[in-house]
Amino acid sequence: MTRLAPPNVTDVSDSQRSRVGFCLFGPKPEVRHYRIGPVPVSLASILTGVATDFHELYRAYSIEEPTGNEFAIEVIVKRSARSLRRYYHVVANGERLFAMRSENEVLPHVEWAINTMVATRLSEYLQIHASVVARDGVAIICPGQPGQGKTTLAAALLSRGWSYLSDEFALLDPETRLLEPYPKALCIKAGSFEVLRRLRLPIDTDRVYYKGEKGQVTLLNPLRIRPDVVADRCRVGMVVFPEINRSTTPVIERVSRAQTVFELTRCAFNFGRFRATGFNLLADVVERAGCYRLRCGHLATTCDLVEAFFTREVGSGV
Amino acid sequence: MSAGSRKDSPGDQRRWMPIRREGLCCRTFDDEAVLYDPAHHAVHYLNRTAWFIWNCCNGHRDVEDITLEVAAGFEPNAQQDNPLAAIRDDVRATLSRLTENGLIESAP
Predict the structure, then answer these.
(1) Please, are residues B45 and B37 in contact by the beta-carbon 8 Å criterion?
(2) Would an 8 Å CB–CB cutoff place B59 in contact with chain A?
(3) Per-residue model confidence as pLDDT tens digits over A105-126
(4) pLDDT, tens digit, 9 for 90 and up, residues B7-33
(5) How far is the CA of B108 from the CAs of A150, A308, B8, B65, B102, in angstroms?
(6) Is pLDDT at A214 greater than 50 in this prediction?
(7) Burial class (CB in 10 A: 0-12, 13-18, 19+), B3
(8) In chain A, how long is the greatest CA-to-CA distance?
(9) Measured between CB atoms, which of A257, A276, A286 is closest to B38?
(10) Is the dihedral of CA A173, A177, A183, A187 positive or negative?
(11) What is the model's pTM?
(12) Quick check: B5 contacting A, CB < 8 Å?
């Protein structure tokens, strides 16, 4: 799979551009190793700025030695033989996943490459495309397609003291039926910058990247919200399907458990691997969870509503 | 669904006696269900009515029997001139969809 990004759509200020180093003929890039929750990653980037930014996001998960089964991500540069233009390539375990023209597209595509590797290689968990936050050891998973507000809702709840598991993957352990945290950086779209800054989240608008159809994004290190923000393994207490709503008034309504299981199977990246086991796993999880559809509105009011229903379902003193 | 004798065909629904397909994983929640079909790796959601009708498919009931079961089990729509005819249409439509999705078949 090779994806060429639109060539003329990046909007990078000079100050941002100058942060991205480039060493086409320099020494071989340093390889750094990380273990982000259950996800082992190594990164070798010819763009030193990408390596530096990545390390700033994941410094807490840095490890000295490779684990042996890690997802090996490389950023390389090649010139087009025809146009002589430089293209940056993101390579995962030897396979070129993305090609792009602009330096500031690279880091979000490194993240995307890791996500692709997680979805295709981290086979021990049933993976649901969802953001996940928790309180008092009980999680809410918010499954859905891109653009439904999963990450924005998760970030807003983190600003109110919730703990973080992931903004992209609910990793269900089939043995324990618990969710495993995968505390990747939150990928925040430009449309949410201001509303999340108003919640006093450390949105760094000096580091804005371009990510294909998502447009401008920034990456939020969850540990900058609170050092203890990452949750332990926890059970699912609620499933909430978020939807974008044109009204400012949020609406939450119950969804039947049967329908929830059905929709979760459609949001599971690797349901095909688990088949009947995955079906029963989801049914078991949903059997003990409150299931809702949430039409998001004004963000603080939406969070109030989610917390009220969480308290009702789980009995936690939110 | 295999085509064959008239009894095997859902086209002649007066005589057709459907039966739930074996080998499906079924989980019920309140009065709804979700089914997993391992042979086709497909998941199906059945609402209250579809679940009721699917349960009626025991190989000994035809469309008319199932229509009467549904009429007895559900509140009729008072706005319909002929509620039984409306239920019969719904039952036929549901059986047709259950057949299309491989969730019922003809009784042996």
Answers:
(1) no
(2) no
(3) 999 999 999 999 999 999 999 9
(4) 445 555 557 899 999 999 999 999 999
(5) 49, 53, 9, 18, 15
(6) yes
(7) exposed
(8) 64
(9) A276
(10) positive
(11) 0.88
(12) no
Amino acid at A313: E
Tell which of B25, B28, B31, B34 to mutate to test the A interface (max A CBs under 10 Å). B34
C-alpha–C-alpha distance, residues A131 and A141, integer Å:
6
pLDDT at A276: 97
- Taking contacts as CB-CB distances below 8 angstroms, the residues of chain B near A281 are none
* A258 contact B CB<8A: yes
Strand (E) or helix (H) holding A15: helix A14-19
Whether residue B9 contacts residue B56, with contact meaning beta carbons closer than 8 Å, is answered with no
If we measure between CA atoms, which residue out of A126, A157, A142 comes closest to residue A316?
Answer: A157
Taking alpha carbons only, the member of A267, A294, A299, A300 closest to residue A282 is: A267
| ipTM summary value | 0.86
Cβ distance of B30 and A256 shorter than 8 Å = yes
**What is the spatial distance between Cα A274 and Cα B43, in angstroms, rounded to a whole number?**
13
Q: Which chain A residues are within 8 Å of B45, Cβ to Cβ? A: 258-259, 261-262
Pairing between β-strand A290-295 and β-strand A235-243 as defined by DSSP bridges = parallel
Distance CA A182, CA A201 (A): 20
A258–B33: do the CB atoms touch at under 8 Å? yes
Token pair belonging to B52: 């009721």
| Best mutation target, A126, A261, A266, to test chain B (most B CBs within 10 A) | A261
Across the interface, whether the CB atoms of A258 and B28 are under 8 A apart is answered yes
Please say whether the beta carbons of A294 and A250 come within 8 A.
yes
Q: Does A277 contact B at CB distance below 8 Å?
A: no
